[in-house]
Amino acid sequence: TTQVTVSAASGAPVSLNEVGPCVINGTSLVALAPGQCTVTAMSVGTTTVTQDTNTYVLTVQAPPAKKKRR
Length: 70
Hints:
Layout: E1 2-3, E2 14-19, E3 22-25, E4 28-31, E5 35-43, E6 52-60
Antiparallel strand pairs: 1-4, 2-5, 3-4, 5-6
């Protein structure tokens, strides 16, 4: 789980969208399985500010295998 904080310099609202083995829950990005998770942040445009989109790709790795006890 990673905390996510987003803002636009213009103060315009920012929405987040995720694709892949992850989910955004409030301000938390939660990995569900190994793989690539793409997070897109979108701010809406106004008459004085253009719309903006930024995309981030995160690689989620599987946890290390547990060692067997002897």
